[in-house]
Structure formats: C-alpha cells, structure tokens
Design a protein that fits this description.
The complex is a heterodimer of chains A (about 325) and B (about 425).
Chain A lengths: L17 H40 L2 E2 L7 E2 L3 H8 L2 H32 L6 H14 L3 H11 L4 H7 L15 H11 L2 H13 L2 H9 L4 H29 L3 H6 L13 H11 L3 H29 L5
Antiparallel strand pairs in A: 1-2
Helix pairs in contact in A: 3-7, 3-8, 3-10, 3-12, 4-8, 8-10, 10-13, 12-13
Chain B lengths: L1 H4 L1 H27 E7 L2 H18 L2 E7 L1 H13 L6 E4 L4 H6 L21 H6 L1 E2 L2 E2 L2 E2 L2 E2 L1 E6 H7 L10 H14 L6 E3 L6 H10 L15 H16 L6 H4 L16 E7 L3 H5 L6 E4 L15 E2 L2 E4 L6 H13 L1 H7 L9 H7 L5 H11 L16 H17 L5 H16 L3
Parallel strand pairs in B: 1-2, 1-3, 9-10
Antiparallel strand pairs in B: 3-13, 4-5, 6-13, 7-12, 8-10, 8-11
Helix pairs in contact in B: 3-14, 10-18, 17-18
The chains are: A mainly alpha (about 325), B alpha/beta (about 425).
C-alpha cells in the first residue's frame, strides 16, 4: 500500500532554518508578483479607470447623449425606496444562488467521488463531464435549453411516456427559474475537477485505518472525506457563489433580454443591463453594479469569517 | 538668412512643410471622399444597402462604409458612438427615437439642404411631415408601412373561411375559433396570437375608439377604464380559446422564428406590413395581409402610414452636404431603388414607385397594394411618442399583460396598474 503525499493545497511544514526560509520566502514572493503581473497590468491600465468612473457615474444621472448630472446618493436611495424591479431582481438572484450553488456542489462532489474510485479511462470521463461547463455560458446551450423545456420539448415528450402532461417549463413563470437552476447544476464540471484534485490528496491510509476500525462507507464520508475536503469545499463555494450572483447569459438568451415570463428571469445583472443599455440610465445602472459588488463582498466576508469554525486546514 | 541656417537645413524645412501641407490636404480630402453609414437590420438588408452604396460610389466617387447591427445592439452602439463623438455620418433612425435624438442635437436639421443636395420634389408629403421634429426636418423616410395582420391563408382555406376584404372584427374571431375547432385543424391551432401586450395593437384599438396612446406633449391619452376594457377583451378571447395560451405566447420572445404564426400555434399575427416577405421566408403556408382587427365593421381611423425608418445625419459629421447627397441618392435614384426593393417599406417618391412596380415580386406587390389601399381605416399619423414610450411598451404593458394571462392579476386591476406605472415612467425624466 502506498501513501499518497502531495504538496499543493497543504501548506509547507515548518522546521526550516530561519534564514533559509526567509530567502525562500522572498523568492517565492517575487515569483508570485511576477505571475500576478499580467493581471495587474491589465487591471491598472484597462479596468481601474472605468471602475472608478462608474463609481462617479453611480452618483449621477447619465444617458450617454448628454453630460452626467450629479444627483448625490439619489440612485442608491431609489433602489430601496422606489424600485420594485430592483427587489424582484434581488429576490430572483438570491433564490438562484441559494439553490443552484449547494445543488451544483453536491452533484459535483458526487461525480468526483465516483470518478475517484480508480476507474479506467478517467481522463476521458473527466473531460466529458467538464464539457458542459465549457459550453455553459454559450448561446447554443441556452437555445438548447429552450428546446428541451418548451411545451413540446424533449422533457415533456419523455414525461408523456408516463402519461404526464407537463407545462411549458421555460415560458411558465412558476417554473422558468428552476429550469435555469437545473442548467447551472448541469454545469458542475469545474467544481468537480477541483473536488477530484482534493479527494486525491486525502491519504488512503486514513480510510484504511477507519475500515479496520469498522467504519462504514457513510461514516467514512462524514468523518474523513468531508472534514478533510473542507478547504476545497470552501474554495468551490466562494467561487461558485460569486459566479452565481453574476449569472447573465442564460437568462438573457432564454428571455431574449426581457427577463420574462412576468419578470421571472429578471436576474440582477439582466436588470442592470436593461437599465444601462435598454433605457440608457447609465448612472442608475452604475449604482446597481456597485450594489452588486457590495452584496458579493458581504457574502464573501461572511464566508471567510465563519470559515474558521468549519474549514479544517490541518490534517 | 538662408546662409545662417544653412542650405541643407533650409531645404529640409521646406520639404517638411510641404510634406505636412500635403498630408493635411490628403486627410481633408479623404474625409470628404468617405462616408460612414450605420443601420439596424439583417443580412438581406445589408446586402441590398451595400449594393446601393457601391452604386453611389461609382457615380460620385465617395465611398460609403457600411456597418449594421441587430435592433437591440444598434441603439447601444449608436448612443455610445454619439457619446464618444465618433458617430457615423449617416445613421438610421426610428420614429420612436427621432424626437429624442433631435432634442439632444445628436442629429442635424436637414432643411438647409432641401432643393440643393437633397431633392424631395417627388416625395410624399406625409412622409416628409413624419420626419419633422418641432417644425424642422431631421429624418428622410426610407419607406412607408402600416401595421398589418399576417394571415396564414392555408389554415383559413382548410377551415373553409373566407376573410372579409375590408378586415375582420374582434367579434368575428370567436366565429372563426368555432369553425377552427369543428374543422379539427392540426395541433389545435388557434385563431390569433395573444396581442394584449402588443403596443401597436393596443394603439390601433384605441384609435378606432377615437383615442390615442399619447398626447402631443407626451402624456398618456387613454384612461384606466380604457385599459381595463382592453385587458378584459383579451381575457375573454383567451378563455374562449380564440387566442393562444399564456405559456405558448410567452415562448415568443422576439425573434421572428419564435412568433406564434411561424411556430404554427396561431393563424393570425399582427405585425408590420413590410415584414410580409420576411415572415413568408420562414413559412411554407402562403401568407396574406389584412388590417388589424376592427372594433366593429366599418370602424375607421385605426391604421396610419408610418415612416418605417429614416436616414438622419449625425450632428458631429464633417461631411454633411455629401451625406445629404447620399440621402437624396438613396431615396430618388431609380437604379438604387431597384436594388433596394421594398425591404425598408414602400418607397416615398412617386417616380420611384412607378419605376419599381414592374420589378416587384408578388409578395412585394401585395405589400404595396395593402399600404396604398387602406381607404377609410387610414387615419392621420400620431405625434412622435415620448422618450419613455419604449420602456412603457416593453416593461409595463408587456409585463402586465403576462400577469393577467397567467392569472396572477385580474384584468379589472390591470387597467389602473398600467396607467399608474406608465404615468410614473413618463414623468421620470
């Protein structure tokens, strides 16, 4: 029996000579900054200016055709006092995040565990399962989703075999959001890859010892796999949550930018897009964008603050 | 002095100055020899426009650089270009937006060019009027059209119904539905799409009742009671199975492929007359045009001839007179007219129509005959709508109509809701 030991997610152990450590530290630091450079240059030269400009715009009334007009915090006040569509879009986005992220992570973990059992042709399966994630944000998939979940779509034809007459899922306001949650879950590829890497880092002898002590499969999962995987779960949860908050393409394509039926697909970013490019309220749209940043930052901060109670970095 | 700076240096300076002067000249020259044009539309429109532009280049030596986008992307791009001060010389304009762009000086008044670069001698008067904003001409109409119902004649033939020549009434839709059901038509096809959320259909219905969507100063011109009656009218049609279900109707999200008539769910589809050719290209069953439904037989004034779209000149353009020449060429040149056909609507110049008539296909001729044969149901063109009209249509009317259709709101409440939300938007800026 071999013991799998790989570095990576596990932090390097201590016990080195101080000077050596510091020299190594400064050189790794330099390397880190070097790797950051392409991003940093792009951010400083291309993104930073527009980002700050949008912060300024969020305090103005701006329609692109005439100069911005300073209105103070009026845009932010409006969101919470006079804009029912803002509340609708926040509610829809929260429901989406709340359901799609846990379901997607659970599904990704399940598939990763299946693939981790040393089956033959693993690289092929891994690639196949990853494929939907690559296609996920594409127009083609959103179009395919329409075909699947329309009144005479494949899903209903399948249900008809059992004598069930399904509604037109995608164009019914009661179900349309759920079809998009299913779409998100189906794109489990990238968290699955990360889970798979995480699972391979769990030393096999730990399971071995547990088996000897008579722990069943479920117990092994609950007491070994999950605790040792918490750093990876944490990472995946944060990335997927941020991604889910920013979801735009599927709702945009499926509703052709309208957010309909009955605003049931009016995701936050879609509403932001409508305000900006449909009705040219650039000031208000900028304020919406900054509010989204604040919401995402709050969620991430909350996750980090609670992480020390449930994320275990040590073996 | 020559000696002081040296001969060689002198020559260099002269040479450089000459070169610079030359360069300036070349740039100035290039600006007058090239026009930029931007429009919305599909590939077919782009091809036709490209050919006509090339013809203009051959005749005048001015190249025209074309750019085209889909409707939604177009307005984003144009507004961004105008904000950045680099708008194309010639821009396609819609009746919905022309007043706004004119008010913000984004497009230039064309009156000074009339009779010189811009020849409007054979142009229809109502189409010239349609391009005016507060008395000044800002857009040259590229074609007239009118609202029209696309009729799937194969379905009506199969049901054994002969549609009345002057148009059918809302009441008759119920009779057709009965015949449809008895005839056992394939896939349970309904008579008409659900048009309760369609702004032009509502406008047409209001005009037949001698009301309108908007007043001259951009306020709502109908009451909550009118709107309630409208939603009740469609609720009854929906309950009786005359129009399509809410779920089906919600599948039509914009692209023509998703409309109820193309997907075979309804036999009647209210839209615009110039789209007949485009609809037919997506369908096997032969199509025809009919007026929008009438509130009673003999009702008048619902329809109007609308400029389908305009060409305007950007205020930032440095070659306005060349641009005006291009506009004149585009609407008057007989060869160009043959290349352009009726893709943008019925040409507005009498000589052009005459030259074009023999070259038209049967479908194009049907469109031309429809628009010119509207008779009594034709009324005056309404004033150009207020800025927020697009938002009222897309985000208020469409939304409330879906709420009613899905049973989430009673039609009795929907009327006041519509008026309240629309009024709020209209006063927002």
């Amino acid at each position: 029996m071999t013991v799998l030991k790989s570095p990576g997610a596990v932090a390097p152990r201590g016990g080195m000579v101080r000077a050596k450590a510091s020299r190594q530290y400064s050189s790794t630091q330099r390397a880190a900054y070097l790797f950051l450079l392409p991003w940093a240059i792009g951010f400083l030269c291309l993104s930073l200016g527009p980002i700050l400009w949008s912060l300024y715009l969020s305090f103005t009334d701006f329609d692109l055709l005439t100069a911005p007009d300073w209105v103070g915090p009026a845009n932010y006040v409006r969101m919470f006092t006079a804009d029912p569509k803002f509340m609708i879009s926040v509610r829809i986005t929260f429901v989406y995040v709340l359901f799609s992220v846990p379901l997607k992570l659970a599904f990704a973990l399940a598939v990763a565990m299946l693939l981790n059992r040393g089956i033959r042709g693993l690289p092929l399966y891994r690639a196949l399962f990853y494929l939907p994630s690559l296609l996920g944000a594409s127009v083609a998939i959103a179009v395919l989703w329409r075909q699947l979940f329309a009144g005479n779509g494949l899903v209903n034809r399948f249900l008809a075999q059992f004598g069930i007459e399904g509604p037109s899922w995608i164009s019914n306001p009661n179900y349309s959001l759920w079809t998009l949650i299913i779409l998100a879950v189906w794109q489990f590829g990238s968290p699955m890859i990360v889970f798979l890497a995480g699972l391979r880092q769990i030393p096999a002898d730990v399971y071995e010892a547990a088996r000897v002590d008579g722990a069943g499969r479920w117990r092994q999962f609950a007491r070994i796999t999950v605790p040792l995987l918490t750093p990876v779960i944490f990472f995946n949860a944060i990335i997927q949550t941020i991604d889910a908050f920013k979801t735009f393409t599927p709702a945009f394509i499926i509703s052709n930018g309208s957010g309909n039926p009955v605003n049931s697909l009016l995701f936050y970013t879609l509403y932001l897009y409508q305000e900006a490019f449909g009705y040219f309220r650039m000031g208000y749209a900028s304020a919406l964008a900054w509010m989204l940043l604040i919401i995402i930052a709050l969620f991430t901060a909350f996750a980090f603050l609670t992480s020390r109670y449930w994320v275990h970095y040590d073996e | 002095m020559i000696d002081l700076i040296g001969r060689r240096r002198f020559l260099e300076i002269v040479g450089l100055t000459a070169l610079a002067a030359n360069l300036n000249g070349a740039i100035a020259h290039a600006a007058t020899e090239r026009l930029r044009l931007i429009f919305w539309g599909g590939q077919a429109r782009a091809d036709k426009t490209g050919k006509a532009s090339k013809l203009f280049t051959n005749q005048n030596g001015v190249t025209v650089q074309n750019e085209f986008l889909a409707w939604n992307d177009y307005w984003t791009k144009l507004a961004t270009q105008i904000a950045g001060g680099n708008a194309p010389d010639v821009v396609q304009m819609d009746y919905r937006y022309i007043a706004e762009y004119a008010a913000r000086n984004a497009i230039a008044p064309l009156d000074e060019f009339i009779g010189k670069e811009l020849d409007l001698s054979g142009f229809d008067n109502d189409q010239i009027e349609g391009g005016k904003v507060s008395g000044k001409l800002y857009g040259i109409s590229l074609g007239a059209n009118s609202v029209a119902t696309m009729v799937n004649t194969a379905v009506f033939d199969k049901a054994g119904i002969k549609l009345p020549v002057g148009g059918f009434t809302y009441d008759q839709l119920y009779e057709y539905a009965d015949v449809f059901k008895q005839a056992g038509l394939p896939n349970g096809i309904r008579v008409i799409m659900d048009a309760s959320g369609s702004e032009p259909v509502l406008e047409n219905w209001l005009r037949q009742r001698k009301k309108a969507l908007y007043t001259v100063d951009g306020q709502l011109a109908f009451s909550a009671d009118d709107a309630t009656e409208w939603f009740i009218l469609w609720s009854k049609l929906r309950e009786a199975g005359v129009c399509v279900t809410a779920e089906d109707n919600a599948l039509a999200t914009g692209p023509m492929e998703s409309t109820m008539i193309v997907s075979g769910k309804a036999a009647l589809q209210p839209d615009n007359s110039n789209l007949l050719v485009a609809y037919q290209s997506l369908m096997q069953d032969p199509l025809a045009l009919a007026p929008y439904p009438l509130i009673s037989s003999g009702a008048s004034g619902g329809q109007y001839r609308k400029p389908s779209m305009f060409f305007s000149i950007a205020n930032s353009s440095g070659s306005k007179s060349q641009a005006a020449e291009f506009l004149s060429f585009f609407v008057n040149d007989l060869e160009a007219a043959k290349l352009l056909g009726t893709e943008r609507g019925i040409p507005c110049s009498e000589p052009v129509r005459e030259a074009l008539a023999p070259t038209l296909s049967a479908l194009e001729r049907a469109g031309l005959e429809y628009v010119s044969g509207l008779g009594d149901i034709l009324g005056p063109i309404p004033p150009s709508p207020p800025t927020a009209a697009g938002e009222v249509s897309q985000s208020v009317l469409a939304n409330i109509s879906q709420q009613v259709a899905f049973g989430m709101e009673k039609p009795e409440n929907a009327g006041p809701m519509l008026v309240q939300q629309a009024t709020e938007l209209l006063s927002r800026r």
